[in-house]
Each structure stands twice: as C-alpha cells, then as structure tokens.
Amino acid sequence: MTENAIHISDLTVRYGRTMAVDHVALSMDRGSVYALVGRNGAGKSSLVRCLLGLQKPDLGSAALFGEDSWSRRPALMQRVGIVTEEADAPPEMSVAAIARFCSRLYAKWDQAGVESRLKTFGVPLKSRFGTLSKGQKKQVSLALALAISPELLVLDDPTLGLDVVARKSLFEEVIGDLADRGTTIFITTHDLAGVETFADRVGMMEHGLLMLDEEVDALKSRFRRIRFAAQPLAVDTAALRPTVMRSWGSGGEAVVSNYDDLAFERIRSASNIGAAEVEAMSLEEIFIAIAGGNDGGNS
Amino acid sequence: MRNALAIAVRELEEKRFVLYAALAFAVLPFLIAVIPGINTRSRLDAIVTTSFILATGFTVGLAFITGTSFIGRDLSDGRMSFYFSRPVSSLSIWFGKLTAGILMIVGCFGFIIGPARLFAGQNWDRVFPATLGEATTYVLPAALGLFLIAHVIGTFARSRSHLIAFDFAAAVICGIAILLMARSLAIGLAFILIKWLGYFLLAALIVGMAGGGAWQLERGRTDRRRNHLALSQFLWGTMAAALLLTAAYVTWVVSVKLTDLGSGIRATASTSGPFAVITGKTRGRADYQSGFLLNTEDGSSTRIDGSAEWGVRYTRDGRSAVVPHMEGAFADVLIYRQGAKKPIDTGLTVAHGDFFVSDDGGRIATLSNQNILSVYDVAQKRSLASVLLPFSGFSQGFFVTPDVLRLYFVAAGGLKIAELDVRAPGVHETGLLASTNSVLFYTDPSAEHVLVRERRADGVTLNDARTGALITTLAHGTNVRTARYLRDGRIAFIDGPGSTAVLHILSPAGVPERDVPLGPARWTMIIGDDGTRGVLSADTGGGHQTLFAINLNRGVIERRESIGVWVPSGRWDIRPPIEPLREVFYSDAKGIQTWNPATGAKKMITGG
User: Fold this and answer.
1) Residue in B2, B15, B86 to test binding to A, most A beta-carbons within 10 Å
2) d(CA B563, CA B543)
3) What is the pLDDT of residue A298?
4) Residue A1 has what pLDDT?
5) With an 8 Å Cβ cutoff, are A90 and B226 in contact?
6) A157–chain B nearest CA distance, Å
7) DSSP secondary-structure letter at A94?
8) CB contact A101 to B (< 8 Å)
9) Which residue of A has its CA nearest to B75?
10) Over the stretch B434-444, which tens digit does the pLDDT of each residue have?
11) Chain-wide mean pLDDT for chain B?
12) pTM to 2 decimals?
C-alpha cells in the first residue's frame, strides 16, 4: 500500500461560533516526521482529536493509512501510538496496572520494552499514576505508546511539563531514534528547536487555518534574516518579500520569506544599502517571524 | 467482548475500595447485635433488620453515585481519551463500564446481606416480613434503575450545556403524555392494560438509557457536550417512538365503537325512555372497558366512562340519563337530554353513586362523605338546600316533588322515614317502616303508598309511604318473589312455588283483580308496563330466562320470548316511571338486543 499515513481533507471544527479548525487539508507520507506548530488555541488539538477519531469533524475528513479515522478508529488504534496533551490514565491505577490493562487490548505488546523505557525514564512501576509529575506521566504515556511498535506515533505537545533534560532526552534519544528507524511521527509542539533536527515537514496553524505546510528544508532555505549596516532600508519588495522589517542598532533588519542569493545581490548592487549580512534562520525564528507578521508585526 | 471484559475488570479493580466498604458493612450488623442492652432473643432480629437496611441504603447510594460518575466524571475530567486512544470500540467501553457498575451494585448488596442471610437461616422469613427473594426483587431493580437514571442525569448535568433545558422540557412532555394516556385508560378501568403499557414504556426507557449510553460514546466519544447531545437524541428519540406507538395503540383502544363490544358486556336501560348504558370489553384491548350511552330512538351512541353502568340514573320521565364522569376519586355529573346533542355539565362533583335526581332531571340531590345532603337546581346551577343529615344509616332517597325529598334511614326497628323540603330547609322525621329485616319497597306513582317486602320474611304489605303505617297485608307465606306498582297505580306481585308462579294484579287499594299463572319460574322480576301489557322476566330453568308480555286487562300471556339474560332496567327505581315501557334489553351469545313487547320485534345492538 502506498497511501499516505495521514490524509486530512477540508477538515472543519466549530465550537459554537468559533471556528477551531478552518477547512484544513494536509497529507503526510509514511516514514516521515510532521511537526505541527501553532500558538495555544490555534486549533492543533482539535485537529489531532479529529485525526485520532476522538472527535467527529463538522466538515471534511481525516484518514489514517487510507481509512477514515472516525469510523475505523478501533482497528486503526492497533497501529497508532498516542501521547495525548493531558495525561489521561486513571489516577488511582499503578503504572504497572495501566501497562497490564493496555496489554490486554493490543494484538502486539512489548511488555519488556515498556518496563525498560520506564526504567530509563526513572518512573517506578508501582507508583500510582496520579502521584506522578506531569513529565513522568508523559513518559509513561510514551512508553505505552511505543509498546505496540506503532506504525504511526502521534504526539500532542509531548514536551509540555518536561524539564530541559527530559525534553532533550525525549527528542534526541527517543523521537529522533524512532524517526531514524523510519517510524512515522506526527507531533504538535511549541518546541521547534527540539523537532528541527528530525522533522521532515512542518505545518503552522493560526486561528484554525493552516498558514504553512512545507518541507522543513525548503522552508528554511527561503527564510533569511538580512541585517543592514545603515539606514534607511530600501528593499525591493518585488524581488525579496520582507516578512518583518525593523531597526537594528544603527542599521536595520529584514526577514524575507523568498530569499534568493541572486536577487539579493541584484538588490544590493542596484540600491545603495551598503554592508549587509545574511543569516539563516531556525524554525523557531521563522515561526516567530510569521506569527509576529500575522499579528501586524511589520514595521 | 474481550475488551469489554478487560474494561469491566479494570473498573472493578479501580473501585475495589467500595467492595471493602461493603464487606465492612456486612460485619456491622453483627457488631450492633452485641451492643449491651440488646438481649439474646433480639439479636437475630437486629442482625437481619440492620443488614437489610444497610444493604438497601448502601446499594441505593452506590447506584446513584456510580451512575452519576462512571461515564460523566471521566468525560468532565477529560479522561475518556484513555479508552478512546486504545483499540476498543465505544460499545466495549460502554458495556465494560456498565457491567462493572452493575456487578458492583449487585455484589455489594450480596456482600452486605449475605452473611446475615446465612446466619439467620430458616429464621429469616420469621424475622423479616419479606423473603430475600422478594426484597431483592424490589431493591436491586430499583437500584439498577437509579444507576441508569443517575448516569443520564450525570451526563446532562456535567456537560454544562444549555441542552439540559430541552431535556427538562422533554421529560415533562413525556410525563404529561403518559399521564394523559393512563388517565384515558383508567376511565375505561383498564388497569391491566395500564400496567402492561407501563412495562413497555419502562422497557423503552431502559433501552433509551442503556442504548443511549452506547450511542453517546459512539457519537460523542471524548466530548462531553456531544455526549450529552447524543444521549439526548437517543433517549428522547426512543421515548418519543415508544410514546407514539403507545399513543397510537391507546388511540385505537379508546376509539372503540358500540358494535365492537364482545365480552364482559354489562348494561342498564331506562324503563320508559330511549336511553341505555352499555359497557364491555373488546378484542385486542385487554381489560379496557368502554361505555356507551345508547339512544334507541335515533340509534345514536355516545362514549361515556367504562364504569358508568354502575352510576347512571334515568329520570322517571324517561327523557334524561344522568351519567357520572369519573375524575379521580370523584365524578362530574353530566345530563344527557333526549334530543340534545351535547350533555349538560351540571358542575356537580359527587362521590361515585351517591346522588339521585328529580323526575325530570331538573334537580339533583347529592350526599357527601360527610353526610351532607345538598339539592341543586340544574338550570340555575345553584344550591337550593344543604343540610347535615341528622340521622346516620342513609339508605334511599327520592324526589316526591321537585321540592320535597323523601329519605329513608336504617334504624332500630326498621326504616326511619324523613323528608326535606327545599323551601323550608330541615330534615323532618315523618314515620317508621317497622321491620326486623332489611326491606325492599316500591311506592305508587304519587308516592302516597308503598309496597313493602322484608327480605327474610315471606310477604308483602301495603303501607303509608310517609308515615310507614301498615294499611293492609297483601300476601303472607305464599313465597312472594317481587312486587311493584304499575303506572296506573294498580299493584302487581308474583308468588307461588317454583313450579307454579302466579302474577297477581290488584287495585290501588289492594283488592285482587286477576291472577295470571306463569308456569315454572324460579326467579321473577316485574320490569314495567306500557299501559296495556306488563312485562316480566323469569328464570324458566335450563339457564334461560324468558320475557313475558301479559295483557293486564285480559289477564293473558300475549307473548313469550326466550332470551339469554335480561338487562336490568329501573334498577334504582322505587316508583313506576311516567312514560310507558318501550323496549326490553337482553343479552345472549350474539350480543345485546332489544325486544318490543307490543310487537315482538327484536333489534341487534351489539355483536351480530
């Protein structure tokens, strides 16, 4: 089968008059890593709930491995490992009891793997789930999600509540490792620095709209920060589209979303802008630039 | 199934502390029993009674708490995704949780009451009025019902949705619809049918709640408001469908026609007018009893209460039927006039049967449970007199004139006679019908004289109707069966042994005029007369009754008609009717029929 791991079409979710997800369409190939970013309330979690068949969209559809996730949820969940935004296991249950219960529901279950991961994370099996820290709960959820060797791993803000060390460990040792081994991963996060190294594609949601859906490399190659030594700034907007322009020291700074070396050289030679420095941008910087731009951050 | 079981086990594991609490409650009655002050003989009673009270209280409380939380709390706490992010269906989640809840409720009840039951052994039935089986019959279904109801309430309340206003309205509408249907069936005394329809609606409610739980999780999944919406849709949809089916059936049940009557037929007829009340049951309507007021003059029939046969009164002039229409424990009094399309609502409410009417139906007297006699004018819709009866033991009463009522009270030595004149309110004793037994009496058309028969004494006397003074003895020791006045004031009575019953016709003063041998007849009744002929009903043996039309002037039997059973007419009459007898109603295997004594013509009323 060559169908997409995820295929979302015209997905729309409304809560009363609020449009949480606004006609979103996206696809994701098997074996890739998709990072969906956006501010709180952008619609990421609603999209994930629809994707996992936890919520019926008002319009459109979400499919996993070519099958409708709403109607085929129970069967699809055999192939999907999930780490939800909020830890949802019953607080009275011990970690071991949760693992035991889950093992009865799946056709494939790696109990040794669960125990090994929990040991690595430092989460005692006998602890009651309700007594664990937020980060530990995430780690338990992740260990359970990985116990089925999922074809698709869906992580809804997995770093929420994790300390810096745990976050780094999660991204580099766990998710990075899975990505290297070809596991399809769909992750929503605020931690763009964490996913930058292994995400193949990135989507950005704002007010329910999917503002951006692009290969990470392509995205990073077209965004540049240009710093000018002198004022005034004069950028030919037809050639290079500035997303953000602002003063920087005695000079100025522009973030362009369609950077091209030749175009830049042409502008620099044609305009009298003097010394200029071009810098590549991280995903986080690009996200801030876009989000800031959409908030009217152009200056 | 496997997943549902896994979920049930998990839920039970999580709530095992409840089972521990139940075990503690099981021990408690035994501890109470050893409290100083409870003697040895009372210990068993204390254990059994306490364990049953604790088991009932614990189970009902647990049912409510579990019901409100087993789905609702997971939804409101956002923990339902724990299940939905696993490969388990909504059905498995619902039935797993439902099974756990039911097992916990049943188990806790058993845990608490079990030790006491075992300990009590054979003494259980002695100590406790209900056996364990009977107790569980009520407690456990009630607890399980409460569990489901609490789930619905929990889901609705925890969603914090405005939809709860719709649910409230739907519940009220359902309640009103059920009450209206039950009321319309109760009027037809269809209590068995009400019970079965109640079971049907209860089953629908259980299906609505249990199925709705599965449906809410399938449609709403982790979203509490969508859960609420789905449960509402399923529950009220199920109830609406069940109520529509019930309403359609009830509509069919109550839309019975006179000709549909097939069994349990009872009827009364006016002695001189065109009215008859016929009640009975029909096929497919269980015990629903429908009632009709038939007007034989134009063949029309009007639906009345199924129980109206017992309370209807026909006026002496034959032109009106006064029919009580039950409203709960009391009845509204309606008057159906000959030639009028609609009944007159008198506005009077009476206890069933305790009222009597004047000759033309213009006045009605009612007797309340507090022994207050009131006389109303129907046309003016006002009370003319209202008095507290000074004597107890009211037996009979009738209007002598529109203004004067004569009343009879059971008293020592016989029937006390009194009168009430609405023009000068007050009950005045006028005499006594001396008797050592209860008496049957029948007055002449002017209500001056009365024929008296003591139930256990063989004879008939002629007395003054106002004072009760004996005028003459008409027969004694001749096996008198029945006696009454004819419309022209002459006296008729039947006596003689079973093989030789004889009708005696006497002048108003009691002078014998002629005798008519009737032949073998065990039971006889003088129904009435049309001026020329008198009509009798007699049990002529072999399970058959025979109607006789006897020429009163010539003293010969003009016509005989073998019938099934005579339909009583003039049951409440104690005076001859004003108008002549027209038809006699009787019933046989074919249904209700009428017989014209003048022509012998028969007419089918029901069945056929």
Assistant:
1) B86
2) 10
3) 36
4) 46
5) no
6) 15
7) B
8) yes
9) A88
10) 887 778 889 99
11) 90
12) 0.80
